[in-house]
């Protein structure tokens, strides 16, 4: 589940272990700073003053922070870690009480769990009351219950999973969601088209549906046209992009769109395709794919062989080749 992966991730960050958390390396500093303020963290104290009164064995905040940032340090995070991970580590040094136990639920705004074999999005996420970004790419999620998602979500990324049905996700979706990433899943049109409307996603700005199995261009566009705030749309990798008038029809049908398939829509292109949306008869349900075979390496070249003389009894060698394409 996502919750299990979340706690495992926190253990990996070591927020309660040196140089983070509260221990012999910094406990006296926090005791000295909190007593005069009745339990409030004294983060505004003068570092020089702290160093003068620092007992033996204590480390300054600067020294602890350097252990997190210096890539030679054994406590440094790997270069590909998320900014949120780095932020949590820094908080665990400067104000460890804020990321201790259940208090971390009030701090976390972004959660990134990628390639951890997650299958279930459970209700444990509801504890993250301030969560705005949830990235669950490259897992094994086939279904999501929207009731288990925090209502504060603005970004939901589910790329490279096994999602085939959006019904459960659209039962009670996060109302403020601005980006929905569903690329590289198992969605098929036209059954799923009806869930891609403003009734479910009134604030959606960015939508990624790439590399699924959407086939009905007219039906999909009729649903997407209700998304008045949509500016970025990715459909590449779906069968419907093989339709010759695909891009022009979409550009003219969705006048507020700014980027289609990672390509900016300029005024010239919009003028070029003006009026195409009013000609649905140009949309064909079939597409022709022309494949040209260039140079082939590793097979004998028939033209390089000497032709046999008439009446020759030399053996004849025949080669057969099979080229297969999978769509």
TrEMBL record:
The keyword Repeat applies. InterPro entries: Leu-rich_rpt (IPR001611), LRR_dom_sf (IPR032675). Keywords: Leucine-rich repeat, Repeat. GO terms for cellular component: cytoplasm. Coiled coil: none annotated. Residues 35-54 are annotated as: Disordered. Signal peptide: none annotated. This is LRC43 protein. It comes from Pygoscelis papua (Gentoo penguin).
